[in-house]
Structure formats: C-alpha cells, structure tokens
Amino acid sequence: MKEILKTYLTRYTSLDEAAQQAILDDLRVEEYKKGTILLKQGDVPDRCYFVLKGCVRQYTVDEDGRELTSEFYTEEQAIAMFHRHRGDPASEYTYACLEDTAAVVGALDIEQDMYDKHAQLEGMTRRMIEQSFGHMQEEFAAFVASSPEERYMSLLRKRPNLIDRVPQHQLASYLGVTPESLSRIKRRVHP
C-alpha cells in the first residue's frame, strides 16, 4: 500500500530514497470495514485521510432528514478537513466507507510536527491540495452549467468506476437528481 505514497513522494518532492523511507515509516495506514463512519456530521475532526484502496462517501443530512451526497473519495484521493480553523470547527459532513477501505491516517494535532520533521512534506501536501482544489473548482463550475444528463455523461467519462461501486440512490444524490430520473437518464444513454 505504501508504494502508492512513494509514487506521490517522487512526483511532488525531490527527496532521496532514505528521506522518502523516513516519511513512509512515520505514516500510519489503517484499514476500515465497509460501513465504518470516519467522521459524523457535527463532530470536530481530528484526522485527515488519504485513500489507498476503497471508497468513502461525503454527505450531509439536511433539516428534512435527507442524505445529500457531495463527494466520493476513491484511490489516491485525500480527504482534508479545512474547517478546523474557523469559529465552529464542527464538520458539516459525514464520511462513511462504502467499501472496505485502506487509508493513510494523519492526526491533525501532530501535522505541524510532521512538517517540521520532514520539510518537503508540507510543500508536497500543499501541491496536492492545490491540485485537488483546482479540480474541485472545475467540477463545480461544470456541474452548475450542465444538465443532469450531461453530469451523468461526464461521470461516465471521468469516473466510470463509480457507476458499479456506489448505490444508485447515492449516485443520484451526487448528480443532483432523483433515483427515478437517474434510471431514465441511463435508459436514454444505454438503450
């Protein structure tokens, strides 16, 4: 599993083999069973994650009790918690494992210690977050400007593996449609 991380260290840093190994030795990889809740909406996060294997759903429960899916994190995606520095650091989302999942787990209270110990790790993390944030901005702009069918087609092009990995009602929520509408879209696209 740590080979995936080594790829990232090589891509985003100029560390030699020994320095890469020192970072890998300090990182903790944990495995979670399908159905595990990593963080509940309203709880204050104390960890961040980097998915090595599996699928994690990000969702919120609205005032009517409906679950609204806003993201799926799969292999080689980071789940960063950006709200911990605001006045109310409670999470707006729940993060649940949809599959058995293996992830690097970073304790937020020792994040600065890791950066102090491994200077290039902070730069690598920043570059990964910037890349992820840029991707999210593009996805959001495309989502707003597209029809439900265009969103589905985009998903088929960019993340086809989600179609078979995610329950259809959650996929429909992610696309901003009802499950019935998603079924109609699928029939039109795949006659």
UniProtKB/TrEMBL annotation:
- The answer to whether keyword Acyltransferase applies is no
- State the species of origin: Paenibacillus antri
Extract the SUPFAM superfamilies matched here.
Answer: cAMP-binding domain-like
**Where in this chain does the record put each Cyclic nucleotide-binding domain?**
11-57
Q: Which UniProt keyword terms apply here?
A: Activator
What protein am I looking at? Crp/Fnr family transcriptional regulator
| SMART domains linked | cNMP
Q: Does the keyword ATP-binding apply?
A: no
- Which PROSITE patterns does this entry report, sorted A to Z? CNMP_BINDING_3
Ranked from the top, the taxonomy reads:
Bacteria, Bacillati, Bacillota, Bacilli, Bacillales
Q: InterPro entries, per this entry?
A: cNMP-bd_dom (IPR000595), cNMP-bd_dom_sf (IPR018490), RmlC-like_jellyroll (IPR014710)
